[in-house]
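ok posting inputs for the uridine-5'-diphosphate job
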Amino acid sequence: MKYNRILLKLSGEALMGDRQYGIDPERLADYAKEIKQVVDQGVQVAIVIGGGNIFRGVAGASNGMDRVQGDHMGMLATVINGLALQSACEDAGIPTRLQTAIQINEVAEPFIRRKAMRHLEKGRVVIFGGGTGNPYFTTDSAAVLRAIEIEADVILKGTRVDGIYTADPEKDSSATKFDFISFEDVLRKGLKVMDTTAFTLSQENELPIIVFDMNTPGNLLKLIGGEAIGTKVQI
Ligand code: UDP
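and the output
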């Protein structure tokens, strides 16, 4: 396998499936199946999950809500998604721990780096909920931060498009996909991979990001096996 320890970032919206809101149990079960395939190969898997399928702080703020209050709601939404994903992973037979950046001791473990790494070494999937624990950040930033902390080899950003394109492929049919691109070129060309805070943190720490289509069965396993799936952003 090409990677030993990965950080998989899944957006909250990915969990909606074809719904407008919330969690689609079938999509969740599909993801758990994909994750099991790589865990069975001995790959250590950590996951950061978003909350956009339930609540986003900016959306609350645009309706007059206090931004920090809204961000707290968004972070709690990621914990809800984390619990759902943990449940699906355990149904698929994967031992899983949920660690949160905001302490909810009756529900999940607090984030403790050494403990997280120990779980991974023992073959448990670790889901990080609650984002970074701070308002004004995103779960992309949480994904990069946790990936660096646990010394992951790579961030795999699972999306519904199969990589980074010269333009939005859903709007421009002449758009072409990059197999590889440098951090600098992403910034120079103004391409959207992650928000700037998250992207810069990854660049500064030389942590590669692979954007790939998580909804195509088998893609995650192929990626881990070294196949050229998606787009790799590297130094
Ligand atoms: N959030 C936050 N701090 C963090 C991570 C998330 O305040 O470190 C809040 C923020 O309101 C955000 C929401 O949680 O809009 C959901 O996270 P995100 O938008 O990153 O989820 P995704 O787009 O990946 O579903």
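notes: The mean pLDDT is 96. The helical segments are 25-39, 57-62, 67-91, 113-121, 139-149, 183-188, 196-204, 219-224.
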